Amino acid sequence: MNNDDGSRRDLTIELLEVSSKMIEIFEDPKPVQSISDNRLYQIDKCFNWFQQWETSVTSTQNTMSVKNKMMLSDKLRFDLASMLVGFRQLSQIILNSFPGSGVVPARKNSNIIENVFCQQRGRNGQNDNPNYNQYCSTMNGIILGQRTTTKKSNTGSIDNLSFFTPSRLVSKKHEINKPNYFLPN
To answer: What residues form DSSP beta bridges with 32?
Structure first.
């Protein structure tokens, strides 16, 4: 076995170690209750490892095609960075805003956030680059009670998920009687 194979094996072992650490952290049912929690430090270490990997690959003299084969896909790298930085920031915001609270890593996922993005895309005509007014208008609709799910999303459906629920319910006598064309009379 030549030195190049040994180096590749070592890098593969490093990737497996970092991945295992991330799995261990994000499957942990114990809440993070302090900014000084070691799991947040481990998340930073994992994020830095991925950044160093990307930097080492992009600094090589290889062609772009070879560099792409040496890296994870752009989407996966973005998802990993979002997960690591997002959880770190979420924990920091919650722990600073609500002292004594905790954030359970095993309960965090991106479904709610993805639903918001799907709603944004769906309401803006699949526009990948909405302008400020389009984005704000859609976000206001979502925040003020629109469901965050849409049949056009790829994240499934969560019934009655809303950021704001009015305290007063509409009574049945105020509902408009609409004919149901699909049921027999």
So the answer is: 103
